[in-house]
Design brief:
With 401 residues, the chain is an alpha/beta fold. It has helices at residues 14-25, 40-44, 77-91, 167-178, 202-208, 243-248, 271-296, 382-398; strands at 3-10, 30-34, 60-61, 64-65, 95-97, 101-105, 109-112, 117-124, 131-132, 142-145, 159-163, 183-186, 196-197, 200-201, 252-254, 257-261, 264-267, 317-320, 324-329, 333-334, 353-354, 357-358, 363-365. The structure holds flavin-adenine dinucleotide.
Length: 401
C-alpha cells in the first residue's frame, strides 16, 4: 500500500471509527490503519464475564447510539463487540486491518507493515492501554496480567492472588470468588462508588449533575491519566462492589503488596485505611447526589446510610507462595509511542496537546484518557472530542494543508 491521503487515522477502535465517521460525513479522504482487527481490544483483552462498568446510555458514537431495552444496564463483552461491529457495518469505514504503523515522521510520512503512506494530517487513536505494567517478582507461580485473564477455569488449581483493586482487579477477584476459588486481593488506594443510589445508577446521576461535562483543565488536570478509576461493576444482578462484604464471604484482603522474600509475599498495613478511603469517597458521591436532589426538588426514594461491616485486623500480612496457583496483576498499562518520532511528548513521554490538538501542526490525538473530560477515553465522551477534531481538521483541509 503506497498512498497519499488527506488524513491517516491510526487505530480502529471506537475512537478511530468515530473519527472516520465524521470525516466521511465531511467527504474528507482518509484511511484507518489498524494493526490487528477493528475493536480487537474488546474481543481479545477482556475476560469472558466482562461487562461494561458505564451504563449503556453512555454508549454514543457519531451516528450510533445504544437504543436497546436497557439504558441503565451494562452490555456484556460480546454485546459490546456486536454493537461495535454493527457500527462498522453502518458506514463501512476505510479500515486497512493488519497494517501496523511502525514509524511516523514529519511531513507526514508513515512507515507501515503494508508500505509507506503520506498524509497531510494524522489522528492517533491508538488507545490508552498499550503495554501491561507489572513488576518482575521472583515468583515460581503462574503470573498473568489482567489483559490476559479469561476465566477461573484457565488458571491452575490453588489460591489466586489478585494484585490491584482498580476496576479490573475487583471485577476479576469477584469473578474468581464466584467461581469458587479462594481469592487473595491486594487492596490499593482506588476509590469506589455505589452502583445505584436513590433510584438511579450513580453514573446517571453524575451525568445529570454535569459532572462529566467538566474538563480536565477545569478540574486542575491532577485527576488525569494516571488516577485509578472508582471501582464498581456492571455485573448482573446490579450490586455494589463492597470489599468488606467479599471478606465476610471468605475473600482474603491484604494491604498493598510490598514484595516477596524467601517464598513469602508481604503486604503493607494500609488495608484499613484503603477500605475507609474507598468508603469515604463513595459516601461523598452520595452526599453530592443528595444535594442535587434537594436543590432540584427531585422526588427520589431515600436510602439508609452504608454501615461498614467487616473490619480488617490491624497490621500487615503475609502469604506463602506455595499456597498459590496463580497471581493476576491488575496493575494497569503504560503507553508505547516508540514508533512516533515527532516532538509531541512531554518529558514523561505523555502526549502534549490542547483538547487533542498537538503542537505539531496537523497532528491530533483522540481517545486519550482525560483528553478533555472524564468520558474522553470512554464511550461517553469520544464522540464530542472527535467532533471537535473534525472541525479543526476540516478547517485545515479547506486551507489546503
Ligand atoms: C479493562 C477495561 C475496561 C473498560 N471498561 C470500559 C467501560 O465500561 N466503559 C467505557 O466507556 N470504557 C471502558 N474502557 C475504556 C475504553 O472504552 C476502552 O479502552 C476502549 O478500547 C478505548 O477505545 P480506543 O479506540 O480509544 O482504543 P483501543 O480500543 O485500544 O483501539 C486502539 C487501536 O489502535 C491499534 N493500534 C495501536 N497501535 C497501532 C499502530 N502502531 N499501528 C496501527 N494500529 C495500532 C490497536 O490495535 C487498537 O485496535 C475500558 C478499558 C479497559 C482496559
Amino acid at each position: 500500500m503506497t498512498r497519499d491521503v488527506k488524513v491517516a487515522i491510526i487505530g480502529a477502535g471506537q475512537a478511530g471509527l468515530s473519527m472516520s465517521w465524521l470525516l466521511g460525513e465531511r467527504g474528507i479522504d482518509h484511511v484507518v490503519l489498524e494493526r490487528e482487527t477493528p475493536c480487537h481490544d474488546w474481543v481479545s483483552r477482556r475476560w469472558e464475564s466482562f461487562c461494561l462498568v458505564t451504563p449503556n446510555h453512555q454508549c454514543r458514537l457519531p451516528g450510533w447510539s445504544y437504543d436497546g431495552p436497557d439504558p441503565e444496564g451494562f452490555m456484556l463483552r460480546d454485546e459490546v463487540v456486536a454493537w461495535l461491529a454493527a457500527y462498522r457495518e453502518s458506514f463501512h469505514p476505510p479500515v486497512h486491518q493488519g497494517v501496523e504503523v511502525t514509524r511516523l515522521d514529519a511531513g507526514f510520512r508513515l512507515e507501515t507493515s503494508g508500505g509507506p503512506v503520506e498524509a497531510d494530517q494524522v489522528v492517533i487513536a491508538t488507545g490508552g492501554y498499550h503495554v501491561p505494567r507489572f513488576p518482575v517478582l521472583p515468583l515460581e507461580v503462574t503470573q498473568l496480567h489482567s489483559a490476559r485473564y479469561r476465566s477461573a477455569a484457565d488458571l491452575p488449581a490453588g489460591d489466586v492472588l489478585v494484585v490491584g483493586s482498580g476496576q479490573s482487579g475487583v471485577q476479576i477477584a469477584e469473578d474468581l470468588h464466584l467461581a469458587g476459588r479462594r481469592v487473595h486481593l491486594a487492596v490499593g488506594t482506588a476509590p469506589r462508588a455505589a452502583r445505584r443510589y436513590r433510584g438511579h445508577d450513580t453514573i446517571t446521576w453524575l451525568e445529570q449533575m454535569g459532572h462529566y461535562a467538566r474538563s480536565a483543565a477545569e478540574l486542575g488536570n491532577e485527576r488525569g491519566h494516571d488516577r485509578a478509576n472508582h471501582y464498581m461493576t456492571g455485573r448482573r444482578p446490579s450490586h455494589d462492589v463492597d470489599l468488606r462484604a467479599f471478606a465476610a464471604d471468605g475473600m482474603v484482603l491484604h494491604g498493598r503488596l510490598l514484595g516477596v522474600e524467601a517464598g513469602r509475599l508481604r503486604f503493607g498495613d494500609d488495608l484499613a485505611a484503603n477500605l475507609d478511603h474507598a468508603d469515604a469517597v463513595a459516601a461523598s458521591i452520595k452526599a453530592s447526589i443528595d444535594d442535587f436532589i434537594d436543590a432540584r426538588g427531585i422526588d427520589a426514594p431515600t436510602e439508609p446510610a452504608y454501615v461498614p461491616g467487616w473490619q480488617p485486623p490491624g497490621g500487615g500480612s503475609s502469604l506463602e507462595e506455595a499456597s498459590l496457583g496463580a497471581v493476576v496483576w491488575a496493575t494497569g498499562f503504560r503507553r508505547d509511542d516508540g514508533w512516533n518520532r515527532l516532538p509531541a511528548f512531554d518529558g514523561g513521554g505523555f502526549p502534549v496537546h490542547e483538547r487533542g490538538v498537538s503542537a505539531v501542526p496537523g497532528l491530533y490525538w483522540l481517545g486519550l484518557p482525560w483528553q478533555h473530560t472524564w468520558g474522553s477515553g470512554r464511550f461517553a465522551g469520544v464522540a464530542d472530542d472527535a467532533a471537535y477534531l473534525a472541525e479543526v481538521i476540516g478547517a485545515r483541509t479547506l486551507v489546503g494543508a
